[in-house]
Design brief:
2 copies of one chain form a homodimer. The first copy, chain A, is mainly α and about 170 residues long. Chain A is about 70% helix and about 0% strand. Chain A has 10 helices and no strands. Chains A, B: It holds the Pfam family Bac_globin.
Chain lengths: ~170, ~170
């Protein structure tokens, strides 16, 4: 059985070593602190909350845009070498579990990545080489979450089937 | 509704700021690299796989001891300031999702912490101050996973109930 990591690499087309090239340098330091990450997440969610594709926009309908922005940039800052802002406020990233309420399908991953590429393109506080590294990380992570989403739903179906086959207590 | 983080703090008795005091310094550097983490995880799983409590030992019965040790120390090294060994091999930690197959109850968390405290006590390559920081992180994380376990099982019960109430397709 393929691992989450293997599925992420195959589906995204990004090798693990490229996905985690973000760790070769400290991006938080080289980009100069919080602001580039705040810029990126603001650009990203401004696009997402205004998406013409209703099916994608509706995934975020129960979250406030400001909170979505903060959750994202705090995670990025923590993951890319900065202070652990996300964990101090919300605990471990627990990426698969926190995405559990959302339909993280391949189509949703592709739409997410489409907006993220355009958000990166318009973030002038991030240099071109860092953009490539970050986009590889995002692609791999998006499909890691698609794989995680499939894993939890399959496990759930098995549990439901098992529960349904038991006599009522 | 209490967040995962709030539950973790209340149930473990460890404030978030104490749990993430591991980030105030780079423990990987101050402890001098991989070896203290390898020592700790080896001591820990040697105890676990030999636990007199069969209910707890059986949780780990489907995993090889050597793999359990490596998974753990690679995560600890990555989380405590060292190279991202875990992600390079297995992807994001995704702590809650990866613990999903296991019954992470309060009793299991307490037994895990009992063995971890004794494993720390016998790891001479870790200084006393670092041991306190690490144990606070472990306590908080153990109950974060208990909270995550309850969250996924409750969500699952709702989905199963919903599925059972639908007419068969």
């Amino acid at each position: 059985m393929q691992s989450l990591q293997e599925k992420a690499s195959e589906w995204s087309g990004v090798a693990t070593s490229d996905a985690f090239a973000i760790d070769e340098t400290n991006l938080f330091q080289s980009l100069g602190g919080n602001q580039p990450f705040i810029d990126l997440s603001t650009n990203f969610y401004t696009r997402v909350y205004d998406d013409e594709e209703e099916w994608f926009r509706s995934i975020f309908a129960n979250s406030k845009k400001e909170e979505a922005i903060q959750n994202q940039y705090e995670f990025f800052i923590q993951r890319m070498g900065g202070p652990p802002l996300f964990s101090q406020r919300r605990g471990h990233p627990a990426l698969i579990a926190r995405h559990r309420p959302f339909p993280v399908t391949r189509e949703a991953a592709e739409r997410w990545l489409h907006h993220m590429q355009l958000a990166l393109d318009t973030t002038s506080t991030i240099d071109p080489d860092s953009k490539i590294k970050m986009m590889n990380f995002f692609k791999h992570t998006a499909y890691f979450l698609v794989a995680g989403n499939e894993m939890t739903r399959q496990a759930q179906a098995v549990v439901c089937k098992h529960a349904a086959s038991k006599p009522p207590s």
